[in-house]
Amino acid sequence: xxxxxxxSARASVWLGGKVRRGGRGSAQPSGLDRERITGVSxxxxxxxxxxxxxxxxxxxxxxxxxxSLYWYVDTKDDLxxxxxxxxxxxxxxxxxxxxxxxxxxxxxxLATEYRALLVRHPxxxxxxxxxxxxxxxxxxxxxxxRRVVRRAGLPAHGVxxxxxxxxxxxxxxxxxxxxxxxxxEGAGLTPDEYYAQAMRSVRQDPDAAEALxxxxxxxxxxxxxxxxEMLDRDFTFALDLLVAGIEAMVERG
Length: 253
Prior knowledge:
By secondary structure, the chain is an all-alpha fold. About 65% of the residues lie in helices and about 0% in strands.
């Protein structure tokens, strides 16, 4: 008996000319185009999350039939990939012609922009790990990151490791922060109210309270009167550590 053939990997919407198709003839629905559909998809993902997103829900938001959307995309995956790259288009990138800019400042700027993007769109982190990220906006961001890190003076074999250290940290930090803020919003509280409520609950459990007591000195030294200030200080210090690590590796040659 012959073995079943393995499943082939899904091709990206950015490959094979798929992204350039705008419709299939004169009968395509009026008032729609791929840019509008993508923009509404981003807004819907922000409002309702990835789990609730569907072609039927999107069609209802656009006041068209679900089948109408397939004049512009072949699958839901194609549409999610377009939404992902549209979000990357929000990133403010440094000017590559500014030869006098300090690579450290540019790297911190790129990391801060990426963090804010992940927080603003909590659904983005799941999609960034699912697709190839080869849309024009994603590639533009990646090129700028490589350009900035190469300017630090690392040997070529260390560039990708430095990028991974910085931007996988940002990915993790931004993902957790985005999910935290989404939970806070779902509970109808401010981040500070949510944090205070959580701390009260933790102190009622003996084991958790003991662990919290052991870290009180560190928490106090951390500083910050609000959750936003604490998150910002942690992010900034961690990013400074990573930049210092790159500098140290450059010095080591």
